[in-house]
C-alpha cells in the first residue's frame, strides 16, 4: 500500500487485499461504478472497505447538474439510491461531481457486503497543482466534512455507517518517464 494512502488511516494501516478496476452494481442504468482500486484495509483493530480513485489532471466527470439534466427513470432510480446511501437530499447541488457520489456509494455498498467497520473513498492524486481538489472539497462539504489535502476525515452518515473521505498526494516520481 502506498505510504500516502496508509497515512489516511494512521500508523497501523495494513493492506489486506486490493482489486484494480473493481465494479460495483448500482440501481438504474446498465453501467456499474468502476473503481480504480477496491481495498480492504485493517487499522487500529478495525477493517475498512475503501475505493480509491487515481487522478492526475483529469476531472471527476460531469457535474450532477449535467448528468441529471432531463433524467430518465433509470437515472432517477440511481440518484435516489446514491442520495439514500450518502444521506443527502434528492438531487444535490448541481455543481457536485457525479463520479464522487457513485465512487463513495460503491465504498458504502462494499462495506455493507463485507461487514466492515467503515467505508472510505480516497482520491490518490498525482497532480502537482492538486487539480480538482476544490471539486472534492465541495463534495466533502455536502457530507459535512472539511477536506484537507493529505488528511482524511470521518463522518457518521444518517444510516449510522461510518465514512472516511481523504485526498492523498501521490509521489511525482510516478509522472516521470
Give a short overview:
With 177 residues, this protein is an alpha/beta fold. It contains 5 helices and 6 strands; from the N terminus they run αβββαααβαββ.
What's the number of domains? 1
Largest sheet: 6 strands, mixed
Structural class: alpha/beta
Number of strands: 6
* Low-confidence runs: none
Return the string of H and E elements: HEEEHHHEHEE
Query: Mean pLDDT score, rounded?
Result: 93
Strand content: 25-35%
Binned, the helix content reads 25-40%
Q: What is the rounded distance between the termini?
A: 22 Å
Write down the oligomeric state: single chain
Q: Tally the helices: what do you get? A: 5
User: Which strand order does the major sheet show?
Assistant: 1-2-3-4-6-5
Radius of gyration over all CA atoms, rounded:
15 Å
Shape: globular
Characterization of this structure:
There is one protein chain. This protein is of the alpha/beta class. Helix content is 28%, strand content 31%. The protein has a six-stranded mixed β-sheet with strand order 1-2-3-4-6-5. A hairpin with an 8-residue loop joins strand 1 and strand 2. Helix 3 crosses helix 4. The longest helix has 17 residues. It is globular and about 45 Å long. The mean pLDDT is 93.
Amino acid at each position: 500500500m502506498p505510504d500516502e494512502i496508509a497515512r489516511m488511516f494512521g500508523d497501523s494501516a495494513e493492506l489486506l487485499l486490493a482489486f484494480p478496476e473493481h465494479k460495483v452494481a448500482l440501481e438504474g442504468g446498465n453501467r456499474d461504478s468502476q473503481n480504480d482500486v477496491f481495498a480492504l484495509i485493517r487499522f487500529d483493530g478495525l477493517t475498512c472497505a475503501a475505493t480509491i480513485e487515481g487522478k492526475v489532471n483529469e476531472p471527476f466527470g460531469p457535474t450532477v447538474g449535467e448528468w441529471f439534466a432531463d433524467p430518465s427513470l433509470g437515472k432517477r432510480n440511481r440518484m435516489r439510491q446514491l442520495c439514500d446511501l450518502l444521506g443527502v437530499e434528492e438531487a444535490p447541488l448541481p455543481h457536485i461531481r457525479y463520479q464522487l457520489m457513485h465512487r463513495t456509494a460503491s465504498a458504502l455498498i462494499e462495506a455493507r457486503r463485507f461487514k466492515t467497520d467503515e467505508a472510505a473513498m480516497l482520491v490518490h492524486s498525482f497532480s502537482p497543482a492538486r487539480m480538482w481538489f476544490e471539486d472534492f472539497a465541495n463534495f466533502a462539504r455536502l457530507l459535512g466534512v472539511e477536506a484537507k489535502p493529505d488528511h482524511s476525515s470521518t463522518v457518521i452518515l444518517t444510516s449510522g455507517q461510518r465514512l472516511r473521505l481523504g485526498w492523498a498526494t501521490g509521489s511525482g516520481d510516478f509522472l516521470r518517464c
